């Protein structure tokens, strides 16, 4: 072991490893622009299927619409900032890599841990929402939901054993199918639209959201507070698109394709989000019913086609949730892989399959933690209130995501100053303004999570997880780091550590 004392490594210790260490942790390049674009959309598209709709009960149609526009703008700014950093630092560490270079080891782990919480829980939440759809389709009781979760993770891990290229191809196919299902829903909903009657059928009541049978209610039934309380659920329509840079060392040309894929992904998701918001609220039963639905797209199909056809269409709609579940699980594995390769997590987790170059151990570790969290929330109260469990998971994910975005935006600002001379194949058109705007919106969203009496405990639970992780690094792992490509780039001031292309 060698103790480092310069400014870039103060307070941490690096283990000496030989070349075989990295030979056991190799990845394979295979992803082009279209694959990356569909991976970016696939990582998020489950958020158009479930979870977002709880915002109707918090802010009404107008409140959730304004929240979606605010959050959509934030994600455009964030993706442009991340696009600039990912082209300049094309490591699989993604957000951890950016912050490690700009903010040192503590900054790197703080950001990587926030992403870890987000990427472990996001596919878990998608699996939870998918199980709700599957239970509705096959008529299984709520008590059987944990069996769906175990089966889903078993299928995902089985697919990963066949290699990442096949896994990514499957995600791309089901993402394209999921987009097609949403577009089909938009078209068949058109004859049933009555915006004023159904989208504006929420009023403020003594118990919160009250139904207006004839509609024509206020756009903002809960005022500006409703807009703010809707922000976390608007986030779910875009959350996890930022995971794309985790595939940088598996992309054929990350410096060129990563920024393009990020921007194409967020623009595609913004269009789909606005469509889902408008068409779901404007058909019979409307925004009030959608605000408490566990499977909003299935309920939309039920309204249009009745139960029989709705179940058939919903079985196709499950593809959207499956796309995000698979893409999110792979992102969780890559986050664990990159933190483990650099020694922030136990190094055994980053060993890859010698034939397929897939980080199966990291995938299995992320999946095991996700299943544990699902079961923990389930037994602590989710089994008695399935709808509340969905909102609880979303709130935990949003907390971790907001922390990660703030850290990445700070890293962007620091990199503009301290690494002004490094090559930047892509420059964010929003520049520093975009980073400051992202920080402001994230801080506001975080603050209102703690004002929400229904879901503040979810934010507190995520904060406790975060504190435990930081303590683990501070007392143990910071003395066992490894000079991975991300670490070497940071330690050398950008002179070494660029991944081989």
TrEMBL record:
Pfam families: AA_permease
Keyword Membrane annotated: yes
Protein localization: Membrane
Gene Ontology CC entries for this record: membrane
Assigned keywords, A-Z: Membrane, Transmembrane, Transmembrane helix
Membrane topology according to the record: Multi-pass membrane protein
UniProt domain Amino acid permease/ SLC12A: residue ranges: 38-477
TM ranges: 31-49, 61-82, 119-139, 145-164, 171-190, 219-241, 262-283, 312-331, 361-380, 386-413, 433-451, 457-475
GO terms classed as biological process: transmembrane transport
Protein name: Amino acid ABC transporter permease
Organism: Mesorhizobium hungaricum
């Amino acid at each position: 072991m060698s103790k480092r004392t310069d400014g870039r490594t103060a307070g941490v210790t690096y283990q000496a490893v030989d070349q075989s260490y990295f030979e056991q942790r190799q990845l394979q390049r295979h992803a082009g622009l279209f694959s990356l674009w569909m991976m970016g959309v696939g990582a998020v598209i489950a958020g158009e299927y479930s979870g977002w709709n709880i915002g109707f009960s918090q802010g009404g149609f107008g409140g959730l619409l304004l929240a979606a526009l605010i959050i959509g703008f934030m994600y455009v700014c964030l993706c442009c900032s991340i696009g600039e950093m990912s082209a300049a630092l094309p490591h699989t560490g993604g957000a951890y890599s950016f912050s490690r270079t700009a903010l040192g080891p503590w900054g790197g782990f703080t950001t990587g841990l926030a992403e870890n919480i987000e990427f472990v829980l996001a596919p878990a939440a998608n699996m939870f929402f998918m199980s709700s759809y599957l239970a509705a389709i096959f008529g299984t009781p709520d008590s059987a939901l944990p069996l769906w979760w175990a089966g889903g993770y078993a299928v995902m891990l089985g697919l990963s054993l066949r290699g990442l290229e096949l896994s990514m191809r499957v995600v791309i196919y089901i993402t394209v199918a999921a987009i097609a299902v949403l577009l089909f829903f938009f078209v068949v909903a058109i004859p049933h639209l009555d915006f004023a009657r159904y989208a504006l059928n929420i009023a403020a009541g003594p118990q919160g959201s009250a139904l207006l049978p004839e509609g024509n209610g206020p756009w903002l039934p809960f005022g500006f507070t409703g807009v703010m309380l809707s922000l976390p659920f608007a986030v779910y329509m875009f959350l996890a698109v930022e995971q794309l840079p985790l595939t940088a060392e598996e992309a054929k040309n990350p410096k060129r394709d990563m920024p393009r894929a990020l921007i194409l992904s967020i623009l595609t998701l913004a269009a789909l989000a606005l469509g889902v918001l408008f068409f779901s609220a404007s058909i019979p039963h409307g925004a009030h019913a959608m605000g408490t639905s566990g499977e909003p797209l299935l309920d939309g199909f039920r309204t249009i086609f009745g139960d029989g056809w709705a179940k058939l269409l919903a079985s196709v709609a499950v593809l959207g949730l499956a796309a995000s579940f698979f893409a999110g699980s792979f992102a969780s594995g890559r986050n664990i892989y990159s933190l483990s390769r650099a020694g922030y997590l136990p190094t055994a987790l980053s060993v890859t399959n010698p034939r397929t170059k897939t980080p199966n151990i990291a995938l299995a570790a992320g999946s095991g933690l996700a299943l544990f969290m699902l079961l923990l929330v389930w037994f602590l109260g989710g089994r008695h209130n399935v709808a509340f469990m969905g909102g609880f998971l979303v709130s935990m994910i949003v907390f971790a995501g907001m922390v990660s975005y703030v850290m990445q935006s700070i890293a962007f600002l620091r990199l503009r100053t301290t690494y002004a001379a490094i090559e930047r194949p892509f420059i964010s058109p929003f520049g520093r303004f975009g980073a400051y705007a992202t920080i402001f919106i994230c801080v506001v969203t975080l603050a209102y999570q703690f004002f929400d009496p229904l879901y503040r405990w979810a934010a507190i639970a995520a904060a406790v997880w975060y504190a435990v992780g930081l303590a683990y690094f501070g007392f143990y792992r910071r003395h066992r780091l490894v000079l991975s490509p991300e670490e070497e780039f940071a330690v050398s001031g950008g002179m070494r550590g660029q991944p081989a292309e």
